[in-house]
Every structure is written in C-alpha cells, then in structure tokens.
Specification:
There is one protein chain. This protein is α/β, with parallel strands linked by helices and 392 residues long. It is built from 17 helices and eleven strands. Strands 4-3-2-1-5-6-7 form a seven-stranded parallel sheet, with helices on both faces. Strands 9-8-10-11 form a four-stranded mixed sheet, covered by helices on one side. Strand 6, helix 6 and strand 7 form a beta-alpha-beta unit. Helix 15 packs antiparallel against helix 16 and helix 15 packs parallel to helix 17. The radius of gyration is 20 Å and the shape is globular. It starts with 7 loop residues before the first strand and ends with a helix.
C-alpha cells in the first residue's frame, strides 16, 4: 500500500537544466502531491517562461540580470512574480510557502543558495554535488544545527541512502560506488590523449548536461561523488570503493560487517532518485522502464584505472590533504571543463590544470565559509591563467 504524502511545496533551483527538467516531469505525474512555488534559471529564458506558466508558480528568478526585462514582460500577464540575481534566490528559498528546495544548479554556484535554504530550515534535495565537495564539513554541520534533512539526488548517493534504509542502524563497513566508466572506459591512455570534445560528450548510458558529461568522461565526476559520499554518510575515504560497472544497473552498494551487501538497482533514469528525494519516505509510481532480469544477462565489474583517469586520483588526494583542497580542486576542474567545452584546451589537459592549481593553492586547514568562497575565487583565477598559458 502506497504511503500518503502531504502536498509538498518545492523550489527548483536550476529548473532548465537536465535535473530540473526531469524533476518537473516527476511533478507532472504527481500534481496532487507537489506544488512548484519557485523556479530559477541562469540564461534559458524561453524554457523558464514556459515552465513557470505550465506549473503556475508563485515566482521565478532569472540569475542573469540582463534578461530580467524579457522574463518580466512575458510573465506579468500571468501574475507570476519575477526577480533577478543570486541574492533574490537566497532570499526567496526562505519563504514560508516553500517546504523543500531541490538544488540543481551546476557547479560551485549552488553552494550559496543551499546554505541560505538550510539556514531557513528547508528540507534539501541535493543534486549539486559541488556544494559538499567544496564545503562538506561546513554544510553538514549547518544541516545538523538547523535540523535540516539532506536527501541525495545523485543516483549513486540516492542508492546508498536507499540501501541504508534496510540497515537497521548497523554501521557501514564499505560503500561500493559504481561508475559507468564513461565513453573512454575501453580506450588506452594514448587514445584518451587524442580524444575530441564530441567523443567526450558521447556518454554511453546517461543523458546529462555537458559539464557533468565531461566530468564523467574524465572520471572526475566519480571523484566528486567520493567526496560527497564521505560527508553525506560520515565515512572515511578508506571505506569508499569505486567500482566500474558499465551497464549502470546497480547504482551503488553498501557492505556490512558480516560481508552482506545491499545494492540498489534500476535502469539509468534520473527521475527515479529525484522522485525518491521529493517524495521520501514514500515510493511513488513512475512511468519508467522496469528491470527485466532475464533480459539483462550478465552484469560486469572492474577496478578503475587511475593511470588512465588521473582526475579520480586527484580527488582522493584532495581528501587526504583535507582543509580547502577539495574546494580548490573543484574550482580548477570547473574552469578546465569550461575551457574544454569552448575548445580552448584538449580534454586530456583537464587533470593537468587541476593538479597545478592544487599544488599552488594557499592551504587552509579548517576553512570558514568565507575561506571557501575565497579559495574558490583564487583557484579559479589561477586555473584561468594556466588555461591561458596552455592555449598560447
């Protein structure tokens, strides 16, 4: 029997991105359970306008302030409030009309709004992994202080969270974080050196935004997820094992002291973890493809090759160093990925940019939130210089 869920009023930060669009598809299927109150976007004006009208939202924020007039003119006849800029996002997530905030912004930009929502006591459906990568200790401590649940939306972390529902409070022995291996799983190191942008964007299993797709190809995405798992589930990196699973059917596993392993499985469809977070603890119906075990055949696993994918090794190194190092690593990666997408540098140069920034960052052992913002700014500036030197 399906549990009853009180109608939840949600804000979707980054509604025009891949996660945001799929979240709205979940809402379409359960309009009796969810009410969208706030949508935000950076540049995708037309889509934001159509989403706002379809879901009859209370307010929208266009973060690119130069586009405010266009959005305002389109939504005025629909009595939808229009705001601009990140300050407005941070103000509005604290509104009394919002119960849950889905943070689906891409990159470090999601940190500030997530902090504002936590401080306002809102439940967080976390799809922005960079928030915990850059400031995991600060954010998790703050969530505890304000008694705010953080419900993971990444498929891997949702899988771990779901596995733990059956643990009866027993401690985690090991997390097995699965990775598809991306488009270059079977390539040699030399072949990866010559990979093109189009090849890096050709993910075999998942349909995602361009930034996360590049991160998946370099396996930096898995490194970010290792850091996120450390903070979400309060385990040391020695208890997190990355395993390449090309079929992407098992989304992650949790092992216990007796050797028993609980896994969460499903076809690659981000609507599943999104819906689980939005509707938790209920399991709602979803018009997705269901598993046919007889048709699956075999599932395969292998260890990741950090020689071919040095970005993953850099992520583990950032955990070992601690302090603000993961923040610097993330900032450098954001700049490097943006440069790849603009074809300013080659895909294979991403780890080079990241490593140089990590080696030169001003290290802070116990960073404050201000330190994190400063580290991000300085690391990005240094990464821009390194990219520029590579393009000469």
């Amino acid at each position: 029997m399906q549990e009853t869920v009180n109608k939840r009023r949600i804000a979707i930060l980054g509604s025009t991105g891949s996660i945001g669009r799929q979240a709205l598809d979940v809402v379409r299927q359960h309009k009796d359970l969810f009410q969208v109150e706030l949508l935000t976007a950076n540049n995708s004006v037309d889509l934001l306008i159509s989403q706002a009208i379809e879901f009859d939202v209370n307010a929208v924020v266009i973060c690119n302030e130069s586009k405010y007039g266009q959005v305002k003119e389109a939504l005025d006849p629909h009595d939808i409030k229009v705001f601009a800029g990140m300050d407005s996002v941070c103000d509005l997530v604290g509104g009394d009309n919002i119960d849950m905030v889905l943070t689906a912004m891409v990159g470090f930009s999601g940190l500030r709004s997530t902090v504002a929502a936590i401080q306002a006591g809102k439940a967080i459906a976390l799809a922005n992994k960079e928030t915990l990568v850059a400031a995991g200790q600060i954010v998790m401590s703050m969530a505890k202080q304000y008694d705010v649940p953080i419900l993971p939306v990444d498929s891997e972390h949702s899988a771990i969270f779901q596995c733990l529902q059956g643990s009866a409070g027993n401690p985690i022995e090991k997390i097995h974080l699965t990775a598809s291996g991306g488009p270059f799983r079977t390539w040699t190191k030399q072949q990866i050196q010559d990979a093109t942008l189009a090849q890096a964007l050709n993910h075999p299993n998942w349909s995602m935004g361009s930034k996360i797709t590049i991160d998946s190809a370099s396996m930096m995405n898995k490194g970010l997820e290792v850091i996120e798992a450390k903070w979400l589930f309060d385990v040391g990196p020695e208890k997190i094992n990355v395993v390449v699973h090309p079929e992407s059917i098992i989304h992650s596993m949790v092992e216990f002291a007796d050797g028993a392993v609980i896994a969460q499985m499903g076809h690659p469809d981000m609507r599943e973890p999104i819906q689980y977070a939005l509707g938790y603890p209920a399991r709602l119906t979803l018009n997705n493809r269901k598993l046919d075990f007889a048709a699956l055949g075999s599932l395969t696993f292998q260890a990741p090759d950090t020689d071919k994918f040095p970005a993953l090794a850099l992520a583990f190194e950032s955990i070992r160093r601690g302090g603000n190092m993961a923040c610097a690593m993330n900032a450098a990666n954001e700049v490097a990925v943006a440069a790849v997408l603009k074809e300013q540098i080659r895909f294979c140069q991403i780890p080079q940019v990241v490593e140089k920034v990590m080696d030169g960052v001003d290290f802070v052992v116990n960073p404050s939130l201000d330190d994190i913002f400063q580290t991000n700014e300085s690391a990005m500036a240094r990464a821009v210089e390194i990219v520029r030197s590579m393009t000469k």
